[in-house]
Amino acid sequence: MATPSKKTSTPSPQPSKRALPRDPSSEVPSKRKNSAPQLPLLQSSGPFVEGSIVRISMENFLTYDICEVSPGPHLNMIVGANGTGKSSIVCAICLGLAGKPAFMGRADKVGFFVKRGCSRGMVEIELFRASGNLVITREIDVAKNQSFWFINKKSTTQKIVEEKVAALNIQVGNLCQFLPQDKVGEFAKLSKIELLEATEKSIGPPEMHKYHCELKNLREKEKQLETSCKEKTEYLQKMVQRNERYKQDVERFYERKRHLDLIEMLEAKRPWVEYENVRQEYEEVKLVRDRVKEEVRKLKEGQIPVTCRIEEMENERHNLEARIKEKATDIKEASQKCKQKQDVIERKDKHIEELQQALIVKQNEELDRQRRIGNTRKMIEDLQNELKTTENCENLQPQIDAITNDLRRIQDEKALCEGEIIDKRRERETLEKEKKSVDDHIVRFDNLMNQKEDKLRQRFRDTYDAVLWLRNNRDKFKQRVCEPIMLTINMKDNKNAKYIENHIPSNDLRAFVFESQEDMEVFLKEVRDNKKLRVNAVIAPKSSYADKAPSRSLNELKQYGFFSYLRELFDAPDPVMSYLCCQYHIHEVPVGTEKTRERIERVIQETRLKQIYTAEEKYVVKTSFYSNKVISSNTSLKVAQFLTVTVDLEQRRHLEEQLKEIHRKLQAVDSGLIALRETSKHLEHKDNELRQKKKELLERKTKKRQLEQKISSKLGSLKLMEQDTCNLEEEERKASTKIKEINVQKAKLVTELTNLIKICTSLHIQKVDLILQNTTVISEKNKLESDYMAASSQLRLTEQHFIELDENRQRLLQKCKELMKRARQVCNLGAEQTLPQEYQTQVPTIPNGHNSSLPMVFQDLPNTLDEIDALLTEERSRASCFTGLNPTIVQEYTKREEEIEQLTEELKGKKVELDQYRENISQCAGEVDLHTENEEDYDKYGIRIRVKFRSSTQLHELTPHHQSGGERSVSTMLYLMALQELNRCPFRVVDEINQGMDPINERRVFEMVVNTACKENTSQYFFITPKLLQNLPYSEKMTVLFVYNGPHMLEPNTWNLKAFQRRRRRITFTQPS
Description:
Elements: E1 10-12, E2 34-36, E3 53-61, E4 64-69, E5 75-80, H1 86-96, E6 120-127, E7 134-141, E8 146-151, E9 154-156, H2 158-167, E10 178-179, H3 184-187, H4 192-203, H5 206-389, H6 397-459, H7 461-472, E11 481-482, H8 485-488, E12 490-491, H9 497-503, H10 506-509, E13 511-514, H11 517-530, E14 536-539, H12 554-557, E15 564-565, E16 570-571, H13 574-584, E17 590-591, H14 594-598, H15 600-607, E18 611-613, E19 617-623, E20 630-636, H16 649-723, H17 728-826, H18 865-880, H19 889-924, E21 946-947, E22 956-957, H20 965-982, E23 987-991, H21 999-1013, E24 1020-1025, E25 1039-1043, H22 1057-1070
Parallel strand pairs: 5-24, 5-25, 10-23, 13-14, 23-24
Antiparallel strand pairs: 1-2, 3-4, 3-6, 6-7, 7-8, 8-9, 11-13, 12-16, 15-17, 18-19, 19-20, 21-22
């Protein structure tokens, strides 16, 4: 085992998680990261170089709570097992010197480097500086994923920190200087160019990389000049060729321009021709409009006399209608007088008829009186004869009295019988009411049962179908078969249904209960096999458990809040209750309240019950077979779904028996009513017979007296009729006299009526004459109005025509103005300018010197739209033949000629500049032995590492694929050692690079690291490794840092370094030699 030669530090990460001991006194404090203080520093043979790390302090960083590390100025070996926190120190160096989190290959956010469970972390790096050490502090906020920077305890920014670090030539992002554990494999992946840049930054002076970059920039500018000269030369050639190609197109363009000018002149004249055409049309419309206006005036003057004549005839018509109304009034008055006379004559006629009718009535009354007198005399004679023939009446009173007594006795018996019938009827009504009440109670019970069956049908349809089959086939079973338990259970209180449903599984709640195995097999064969229904069936125990007593009295458990066992919460048939007691021990499971839940721990310990129910929870208590410990689990009770409907079957059976008793009583009452009705019918018959006998006796007793009274009455009537006589002759004479007087009055009234009719006829004739005159006036008036309407219609049409013409005139006038405005716009004339006599254009001169001008004026162009349109079409067709010509082709042609001259001058200047640039690059080029394919491609310069590990093989370039992992590690380490001797950076870090090496190469590399890093004037070196070979060589300038962890690490404030050293010396000195 290696021992430190100079200085040792033991930072401690978090201990691993392990089980806690049973003894509370042996409990370990909270898990922490601990750091042991450093051993005393020995005098170094060489001082720290500028920028070396003097101290590393961490707080809540990765695996550390608090840790401080003081490395030496030369080789620092950090040794510890995997997972102890060696690489955490490397991460602290990188992040503390403003390195990027992603460079470590662990996480891309700085907040992930803070210890889990902490909100803030801190890393502090102290760098050696001759003018005074530089202390850089980085505080990390996890929530905001932000860092706060401090230099020598003063707040600063990350940019300033990066500038300070770069000034000391520290490059934590350069793999040649800082090689973390997760980046070891990436070193071999560096390209030649990347390796050269990293090497320049690591070992060269600051100007080396700068000159290299400037050289690359100069080469890039040279390439740009070469490209620019080449492009301009090509562009110049293309411009010359294009101008030669477009020369003919320019000539064709000017030919097309002549046609376009003619088209322009035609398009300029066309609006003036349109304007002239519309103006002529406007003058024509204006003349027609004036002519129609005169016609309208004449028509209006011709209608004035007609209007006057119509008004005169209208006045005459009003006068005639007034006279006709007067005649109609006179006729109405005369007619009313005639009507009055007619009414009086009719009343006289009616009076005569009344007198004649009264005489006829008196004659008929006299005839009727004579006939009644004869009939009365005949009746008197018949009654006298009957009275003579009637025998003398016997003494019938005793017989009548006996019959009366019998009738009274029968009436009493009938009253008694009717009373009994009424009592029976009242009793029957009472029984009917009781029967209806019982039926209603049974229906309510059936409805509750139907609710339970509906729930069963909705949830378990197969079980419901099996219940219906069982009810229709109970005769197939020898012993009792109970329907599903959920239908037979009847809760005493609905609130307790949740306990039963949570205790008995759903499969058993819908199970049929049988007393016989044979019956169950018959049922299952029929229902399961034949009907394919999924049902459950169970067998009740042969010996009944229904009345089995619980092992504990309920009185003992009441102190814990228990109020009942599950069995006492409901009623069920004996087989069902026996099965539930046997299978689920419902007679042993108590039910408690909130009081029970509050004392549940005491209940479990003292009662040792296996199952307990509180108000809302179920507790199951078990005893461990191995440790004999009591283990309890509790679950919340589910809401009851099936047993919330309560049906008292015992009460229902009592109601059915009560209903049978009521039916029996009703039958007895009906039999009594039938017997009483027969008795009443017999008494009624006997009563009728006695009454008939009594009636006959009474009639025999009163017949003679009745005959005498009738004879006396008829004689009185005969006397009165004989006294009431009438003189018909006198009545006829009086009636004749009155009729004659009325006829005289009637003749006078007829004469007056005839005169009135003559007057009325004369008035009617006069009225008809007036009506004829009025009709003539109305006819003439209608004819005049018809003529007036025809003239008015003609006037309206003429006026409408005038309005249309006027509107057309206005439209044409507006159109003339618009055409005039458009024509002036086409000719570029102002509103006040007059149209010139000539309007000509000049064809432009072609650049080749040919002048083709043709003066054109309006007078030489066609004067009709058709001719102008035909010429326009022809010229446009000719102009369209010149296709593919750009309107700006002449300008481009001229511009291109100018550009050709400019490009020629520019190209000469660029070539001179390029020659001068090449001379400058040749002066600043140096002689370097680098790998490159083209000496002028400075950005392609690179370092190529070629290695071989066997004498028989050739040198091969170091790549990530050709060599093995150990060979790449050895090559990387040798290259870094070579850079170490150049001593251009203050420190280097290499993390676990010896992981893939074999023992031979590892030993050689270690010897080289010790020899190289411990020389005078070399930079600081950090070498991290989880393992070391035995008997390795060590140097006095080395510093070995051990990293420990474990559950028994001391707190930093309890670590006493001096006491540790004294104990160590005593152990060393007391050992036998």
